[in-house]
Every structure is written in C-alpha cells, then in structure tokens.
Amino acid sequence: MKDTLELAFLTDLNKTVHLQIPNPKTPISATDITTAMDAIVAANIFVFPTGRIVKKVLAKVNSSGSSQVTLGQ
C-alpha cells in the first residue's frame, strides 16, 4: 500500500495550497503532523504564485493499493 500525506495551507492571498509527502512514516500522529505544519508556517520558506503560507488548514493520509483479483473461467 502506498500512502501520501497531504497538507493544506491558507496563503496570505486567501488561497489554499497543498503539499504532498509520499510514504510518510507510519504510524504518524496528529501531534507529529501539527508540529510539522506549524514549522512550515513559521519557517515561511514556501512561496507560491497564490502567496505565502500563513495558516494550516487540514491534513489527511491518502492510501492507495492494489490487489490481484482471481477471475473465474
């Protein structure tokens, strides 16, 4: 199974931007995610065409996987 951690932030131009992190550590806690998002906001290192990150909005882990299906004859 492949997981992606998706982080959403609000910019100073009131637009939402997303950062996707493939294969985050597991298990990952809400505290870990909150700490990371707070650090991203505080560092002010990401600049997007839609502005600078000023606030965290949401985080979610997206999981995708595949399993083989045996077909009948």
What does this structure look like?
This is DUF2922 domain-containing protein. It holds the Pfam family DUF2922. With 73 residues, the chain is an alpha+beta fold. It has one domain. The chain contains one helix and four strands; from the N terminus they run ββαββ. The protein has a four-stranded antiparallel sheet, with helices on one face. β1 and β2 form a beta hairpin. The longest helix is centred in the middle third of the chain and has 14 residues, at 30-43. The two termini are 28 Å apart.
At a glance:
By secondary structure, the chain is α+β, with helices and mostly antiparallel strands.
Strand order of the largest sheet: 2-1-4-3
Largest sheet at a glance? 4 strands, antiparallel
Low-confidence stretches: none
Helical content class:
10-25%
Tell me how many strands there are.
Answer: 4
The end-to-end span amounts to 28 Å
Query: What is the succession of H and E elements?
Result: EEHEE
Beta strand %: over 45%
Judged by helices, strands and strand pairing, the structural class is alpha+beta
| Overall tally of structural domains | 1
| Average of pLDDT | 91
Radius of gyration: 16 Å
Shape: elongated
Helical segment tally?
1
Protein name: DUF2922 domain-containing protein
InterPro entries: DUF2922
